[in-house]
């Protein structure tokens, strides 16, 4: 079955002046001549992306778009028209973001986070109404799982994220050392699955291992910075977060432990590795 808006393995049925033609139950699909490999012949199987062109014809390309149907993607706005905005997704035919699928007006030069979907007309389109594509959690998600995260909105509580391209989650402000940007992709961990199906996410690995991880982060930074870090317990949270992506509380706790063990010395200008390390 033809998968419009995604990649397909198709076998060439004939080649003419327009290009290579794939004959399918859904209709003929044309791969334009300029994109047809020179050594292609009838019977050759190619991996192509299939979409519906401006004239409503099934068309194939060997080019790779920045995202396919079902993906979330951060794309540039090329222009706005009476029907909506057109986005750059890496193909000659730009991607339409209809006015009705915009949560707020977009302008040329903006970057917008969208979900790519297949319209009932068979055409590929984009929407910024992301919540309707987030599905309830299932048994594939458990507390402690390492997951892919996509930041898509902010609330008074924290950053809303899409987990594994499917589920909704929240990173609380207290978990965010450095505020991410909308559309940023992160690796995180499922901290808690609530009875109502809501998911709390953390960016820190293993709640019981946090102190150990913080020490490792500081030690690695020391070794890569010539055994010295220009940070002290008087440093600003911003300075600590920029250099180590740790909160000031976690930083102070970790260097306090390292100091007591004689691993580091704490000086007015920063911290240094102890002798022999």
Element layout with pairings:
Blueprint: E1 7-11, E2 14-16, E3 19-24, E4 27-32, E5 45-52, E6 58-61, E7 72-80, E8 84-88, E9 95-98, E10 111-118, E11 124-127, E12 146-154, E13 158-163, E14 167-172, E15 185-193, E16 199-202, H1 210-224, E17 228-229, H2 237-244, H3 248-260, E18 264-267, E19 270-273
Structure commentary:
- A hairpin with a 3-residue loop joins strand 13 (158-163) and strand 14 (167-172).
- The chain has helices at residues 210-224, 237-244, 248-260, and strands at residues 7-11, 14-16, 19-24, 27-32, 45-52, 58-61, 72-80, 84-88, 95-98, 111-118, 124-127, 146-154, 158-163, 167-172, 185-193, 199-202, 228-229, 264-267, 270-273.
- The chain has 277 residues and is mainly beta.
- The chain is 13% helix and 38% strand.
């Amino acid at each position: 079955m033809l998968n419009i808006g995604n990649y397909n393995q198709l076998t060439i049925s004939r080649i003419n002046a327009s290009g290579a033609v794939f004959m399918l139950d859904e209709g003929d699909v044309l791969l334009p001549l300029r994109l047809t490999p020179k050594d292609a012949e009838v019977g050759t199987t190619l991996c192509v992306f299939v979409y519906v062109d401006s004239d409503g014809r099934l068309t194939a390309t060997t080019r790779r778009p920045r995202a396919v149907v079902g993906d979330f993607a951060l794309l540039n706005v090329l222009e706005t028209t009476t029907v909506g905005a057109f986005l750059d997704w890496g193909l000659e035919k730009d991607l339409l973001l209809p006015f009705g699928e915009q949560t707020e007006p977009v302008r040329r030069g903006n970057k917008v986070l969208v979900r790519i979907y297949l319209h009932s007309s068979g055409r590929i389109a984009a929407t910024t109404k992301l919540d309707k594509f987030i599905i309830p959690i299932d048994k594939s998600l458990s507390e402690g799982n390492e997951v892919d995260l996509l930041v898509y909105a902010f609330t008074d509580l924290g950053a809303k994220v899409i987990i594994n391209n499917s589920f909704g989650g929240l990173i609380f402000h207290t978990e965010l050392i450095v505020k991410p940007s909308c559309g940023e992709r992160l690796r995180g961990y499922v901290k808690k699955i609530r009875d109502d199906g809501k998911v709390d996410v953390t960016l820190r690995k293993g709640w019981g291992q946090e102190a150990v991880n913080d020490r490792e982060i500081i030690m690695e930074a020391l070794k890569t910075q010539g055994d010295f870090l220009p940070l002290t317990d008087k440093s600003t949270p911003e300075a600590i977060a920029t250099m180590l992506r740790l909160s000031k509380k976690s930083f102070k706790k970790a260097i306090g432990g390292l100091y007591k063990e004689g691993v580091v010395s704490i000086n007015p200008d920063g911290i240094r590795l102890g002798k022999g390390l």
